[in-house]
Design goal:
By secondary structure, this protein is of the alpha+beta class. The chain folds into 2 domains: about 60-145, Immunoglobulin-like; about 175-515, 3-Layer(aba) Sandwich (Beta-lactamase). It has 13 helices and 22 strands. The protein has helices spanning about 1-30, 180-190, 230-235, 235-245, 275-280, 280-285, 310-325, 330-340, 380-390, 405-410, 415-420, 430-435, 505-515; strands at about 60-65, 70, 75-80, 80-85, 90-95, 100-105, 110-115, 120-130, 135-145, 195-205, 205-210, 225, 305-310, 350, 375-380, 395, 400, 420, 440, 460-465, 470-475, 480-485. The chain has a 6-stranded antiparallel sheet, sandwiched between helices. Helix 2 (about 180-190) runs antiparallel to helix 13. It is globular, with a radius of gyration of 38 Å.
């Protein structure tokens, strides 16, 4: 037993000696490698704790370019942009835009911008945090400057009897009023090349040049079926309704004035009543209500407010709404409110037929309905007088016949129209950016494109089949009236009317160039 104990002790001591020896060798090895011991300069072992989380990923700044706005030249646009960054990084800003726009400081979030011409401009504000960028856009609609009527503006006297010049002052020659005869003759030659036509060029209220079929020396005959030019001429009743508060706003729902705005039209094609109830007067006046092209009381082809589609049907609904708002015949409203005041005879100079799609009009207790899509017959004298009234911002020889706000409105393409889809870009190019309220305009789009390049951007016009025209050019103080008997063809012989204005350029460019 005692020997056994001694043997165990010896084995235990031997193991401890081995372990101690091994540890000494290991410590010597660490010392030789510069580790261990009290020799300083050693690196402590890494912490046994968990690794710290990675920093959060950078995110792009959030940018607000401000609300869309409308200005009129020569005013500037005040831009109030801003930006935020989740990581609170310092932001730098840059404004960019199409040609024709100049920024007071393109590197400031809040700045001003000036514009070379009227049009719709999309401006972009970009913010950068040093590595990432964010951006936002703002649309600035720029209306043309209003050229005040010249102090030497003339107005024709009221026409009497069968007097051929209908009260107008007629220049002995174009040169007498500062216009070039050769250019005006070129315009007439183009107008008459395919079909006999009548026309007049009015400069500062005086007839600088005119022509009529077979050389007839008259501004009073014949009376032409001016087709869709009715939309602009008869549209004066819309201006009167706004002025007299017969309607409060073009944003009013059409159904408010149309108790018969029914779910089923004359063609028995069903319409969605909720969509009909959503249609506004502005949509009826700008071809964005969604109705089909035909003049009868038709079905909806598009959701109201989504698509620009030329529609006679929508304009006739507008005429019915105005008739109900006045509770009067629109022909009488126009006669008392406008025709009489600008010296027109409602029999000799301008006539407005009843709506052929409403033959069941009761009479005499309910006012007859008129077409607004078409239906006016007028002579060159009447067309030119309406143009002169608009050239003078609704004022006729000191009497404010139409409010200037209405005149401004008709030739300013509404923002709501610019946001719609064009149903036919080929037949009606630039319609969503160039059509105003019942009038066509030469307003450039965001890229500077115009319906009639080379013609002043403030030009606007009434336009119907057979290329009947009332053209107003404020910057040139011009009014041009033109019509032909053949309404099945355009001025260039083309068949079927559309909104491509290229065929009008050979008529209008020489007249513009004739102003010396």
């Amino acid at each position: 037993m005692r020997d056994t104990v001694r043997s165990g002790l010896r084995r235990s001591l031997s193991s401890k000696t081995f372990i101690a020896t091994t540890m000494c060798v290991a410590l010597l090895a660490l010392s030789a490698c510069g580790g261990g011991g009290g020799g300083g300069g050693s690196t402590p072992p890494p912490s046994s704790g968990s690794n710290p989380p990675p920093p959060p990923a950078n995110t792009a700044p959030t940018v607000n370019a401000g609300a869309d706005q409308s200005i009129q030249l020569p005013a500037t646009a005040t831009l109030s942009g801003s930006g935020t960054d989740a990581e609170n990084n310092t932001l730098t800003y840059t404004w960019t835009g199409p040609s024709g726009v100049t920024f007071a400081s393109a590197s400031a979030a809040s700045t001003t911008a000036t514009f070379a011409a009227a049009g719709s401009y999309t401006l972009t504000l970009t913010a950068n945090d040093g590595s990432l960028s964010g951006s936002d856009t703002v649309v600035v609609t720029v209306a043309a400057a209003q050229t005040p009527p010249p102090t030497d503006m003339a107005f024709p006297a009221a026409a009497t009897g069968a007097e051929p010049l209908r009260g107008w002052q007629v220049a002995a020659s174009p040169a007498d009023v500062g216009m070039d005869s050769a250019q005006l003759q070129a315009a007439q030659q183009y107008s008459d090349a395919k079909y006999a036509s009548s026309g007049a060029v009015i400069y500062k209220g005086r007839v600088a040049y005119y022509w009529a079929p077979a050389g007839a020396q008259t501004l009073g005959a014949p009376l032409y079926d001016v087709k869709s030019t009715t939309k602009s001429m008869g549209g004066v009743t819309l201006g009167l309704a706004l002025d007299q508060q017969k309607i409060k706003s073009l944003d009013d729902k059409a159904a408010q004035y149309l108790p018969n705005f029914s779910k089923v039209d004359a063609n028995t094609q069903p319409n969605d009543q909720a969509q009909l109830d959503s249609i506004t007067l502005l949509q009826l006046a700008t071809h964005t209500a969604g109705f089909a092209k035909v003049g009868s009381y038709c079905h909806l082809d598009y959701t109201p407010g989504t698509t620009w589609a030329y529609s006679d049907c929508g304009l006739n609904w507008l005429a019915d709404a105005l008739t109900n708002a006045f509770n009067d015949d629109l022909a009488s409203v126009a006669k008392v409110g406008v025709w009489d005041k600008i010296g027109l005879s409602a029999s000799a100079d301008i006539q407005w037929r009843k709506n052929k799609y409403r033959p069941d009009d009761p009479s005499p207790t309910v006012p007859p309905h008129r077409e607004l899509a078409a239906g006016i017959n007028a002579n060159i004298n009447a067309m030119a007088r309406v143009g002169l009234l608009f050239l003078n911002n609704g004022n006729w020889a000191g009497t404010q016949v139409l409010q200037q706000s209405f005149v401004d409105m008709v030739h300013t393409p509404p923002a709501a129209v610019k946001g719609t889809t064009n149903s036919n870009d080929t037949a009606y190019p630039l319609a969503t950016t160039a059509y105003g309220v019942l009038w066509w305009t030469n307003t450039p789009d965001a890229s500077g494109n115009q319906l009639m390049p080379g013609v002043p951007p403030d030009t606007y016009w009434a336009w119907g089949l057979g290329d009947s025209l009332i053209v107003v050019i404020p910057s040139k103080q011009l009014v041009i009236a033109r019509a032909q008997t053949d309404t099945d063809h355009g001025i260039d012989g083309s068949v079927d009317w559309n909104g491509n204005a290229n065929r009008l350029l050979p008529l209008l460019q020489p007249i513009v160039n004739a102003v010396q």
